[in-house]
From TrEMBL:
Source organism of this protein record: Sediminicoccus rosea
InterPro entries registered for this protein in UniProt: Chl_synth, Prenyltransferase_related, UbiA_prenyltransferase, UbiA_sf
Lineage of the species this protein comes from: Bacteria, Pseudomonadati, Pseudomonadota, Alphaproteobacteria, Acetobacterales
Main location: membrane
UniProt name for this protein: Chlorophyll synthase ChlG
Pfam families: UbiA (PF01040)
Length: 295
């Protein structure tokens, strides 16, 4: 292979490495944090735009590049068409891209003040700890999925509220962000269903590998539902009954979808991701508006 091919990879391969479809959860969580802050946006739209850039195309993209590099042997089994195992990003270039984008993310994070920079450091640390030795948290689905849920949902939400409000977020914002991050543990479990074969052969102990498809799907459903039940209870307690009822209806829709998905988790997990998860994130936004009313 020529040097030019190594130093100038196909831009479409790099974009595929960054998996833009995965940027939605942290970007949405950041938007929820902006809403939940309750702070006026005058003069802060630039910070919000930089935060969205950081949450999705920077930090989340970095996490995907790191994961693809350290998962290249697993992907050769599960997804051989991915940029690294297919050779479209050759040699160690995938690792170099992950390192470069990490430093670029830190530079962007520094423009968002102390909270933004600290959050970027934590998010990148989790991204590398999730995929890279010696921690490689993803080797155990309990810990790996927790790291993903907190970094994809809780951290962007809390960071946005801090950046927009100019200080530490209110306790209700932190509590709700943590609850939705915990619930995302179940979402991460459902994402692991597509990789059962490769995970089994390479020693990645995802929950579907540890528990079997049926039990893992049931655990995922409980992990998604219980935090939302707590959210509903807190919203009622905090005198936000309309928002609580919205989350109740959205959770009811999720439960109906869960019942169908549990009939054949291996086949229907992708279907649930395309239906039930939409209701989950709408509940996040409803909760954010409730918090805005408390600010």
């Amino acid at each position: 292979m020529s040097d030019s091919a190594i130093t100038r990879p196909d831009p479409s391969a790099v974009l595929e490495l960054f998996k833009p479809v995965t940027w939605f959860p942290p970007v949405w969580a950041f938007l929820c944090g902006v809403v939940a802050s309750g702070a006026p946006m005058q003069g802060k739209w630039g910070f919000a735009a930089l935060g969205l850039l950081l949450a999705g195309p920077m930090v989340c993209a970095t996490s995907q590049a790191v994961n693809d590099w350290f998962d290249r042997h697993v992907d050769a089994i599960n997804e051989p068409h991915r940029p690294i195992p297919s050779g479209r990003i050759p040699g160690r270039l995938g690792l170099y891209i992950a390192i470069f984008w990490s430093f670029a993310s830190l530079l962007v994070g520094a423009t968002l003040g102390a909270w933004g920079f600290a959050a970027t450091v934590v998010a990148l640390a989790l991204a590398w700890a999730y995929s890279a030795p010696p921690l490689r948290l993803k080797l155990n689905g309990w810990w790996g999925n927790l790291a993903c849920g907190l970094s994809y949902e809780s951290l962007p939400w809390i960071t946005a509220a801090a950046v927009i409000s100019g200080g530490a977020p209110a306790l209700p914002v932190i509590v709700m962000a943590l609850l939705y991050g915990l619930g995302a543990h179940g979402i991460m479990t459902l994402n692991d269903f597509k990789s059962i074969e490769g995970d089994t052969r390479t020693g990645v102990r995802s929950l579907p590998v540890q528990l079997g498809a049926e039990r893992a799907a049931l655990v995922a459903c409980w992990m998604m539902a219980i935090p939302q039940v707590v959210v509903i209870g807190l919203l009622f307690a905090w005198d936000a009954p309309i928002h609580a009822l919205v989350v109740v209806l959205l959770l009811a829709g999720q439960v109906a979808a869960m019942v169908k998905m549990l009939r054949d988790p291996k086949k229907l997990a992708p279907w649930y991701n395309a239906t039930g998860i939409g209701m989950y994130v709408l509940g996040m936004l409803a909760t954010a508006f409730a918090l805005r009313g408390m600010a």
